[in-house]
Amino acid sequence: CEESVYQAIKAGYRLIDTAASYTNEDAVGAGVKRAIAEGICTREDLFITSKMWVQDMQNYEMAKQAIDASIEKSGLGYLDLYLLHQAMGDYFSAWRAMEDAYKEGKLKAIGVSNFAPEHMQPILDNCKIVPMVDQVSFHIGNRQEAVVTMCKEHDIQLMAYSPLATGGLVNDEYVAKIAEKYNATIPQICVRYCIQKGAIAIAKSTKEERIISNVQVDFEISDEDMEYLDKK
Which residue of 159, 180, 212, 231 has the smallest Cβ count within 10 Å? Predict the structure, then answer.
């Protein structure tokens, strides 16, 4: 994990996604600090995301301790974005703890993950701070239309995890036709598709060549070809 994070930052990535349940917040922090020490970037250049797991979403105090634990494990002083990982447990109390941590400057932005509209509405009805992000599985063939509509209505940024469908699209012949047309890899098309849908795409790889390739998406998929991909 540390090496992958370091190589990603070296390749130009500036957003790194982790979570308490991944048990690698410390390794992410180590990779970040290594890149900073070598002068590749500053802490302010980076956007580090982590998430609270459901076992810590039982009450306000547990949630507060979980936030502090994530920051301490990362060793980075603060987190740029912190999310409720699932719509489970007492996520109302957890959200209040996150609102307070945001006001204290420990968290620069707060949001949720895997929240459908029916999970989000109770938060919207009771929160002081509207969630800034909803991180969901989003990719070609899984457009999450209800979530997208909700995010647009409330000015919530959509963040797409598994833009490659957890590897399910990497050999897909339907997507391959578009990749060939743009002289791109299938993963590049998948990431670019998410970006053009207004989502922040977070691709995952441990191989340096793929880490480098997946960020090389400075091209535009035509409206016609986006419509083709929508039909997947």
Answer: 231
**Active-site position among 6, 22, 161, 174:** 22
Mean pLDDT value of segment 174-196: 98
- Provide the angle, in degrees to the nearest 10, between the axes of the packed helices 173-181 and 186-196: 80
Please list, in sequence order, all residues whose beta carbon lies within 8 angstroms of the beta carbon of residue 46, skipping any fewer than 6 positions away: 9, 14, 15, 16, 32, 80
To the query of whether residue 102 is one of the catalytic residues in this protein, the response is no
CB 225, CB 185: distance < 8 Å: no
- Indicate the helix (H) or strand (E) that contains 150: helix 145-153
Identify the band that residue 109 occupies on the pLDDT scale cut at 50, 70 and 90. very high
Count Cβ atoms within 10 A of the Cβ of residue 161 and give its class: 0-12 exposed, 13-18 middle, 19 or more buried. Answer: buried
CB atoms within 10 A of CB 200: 20
Q: Identify the three-state secondary structure at position 180.
A: helix
Asked whether the whole model's pTM tops 0.85, one would answer yes
Average pLDDT, the chain: 97
Instruction: Compute the average pLDDT of residues 12-34.
Output: 98
Q: How far apart are CA 36 and CA 6, in angstroms?
A: 9
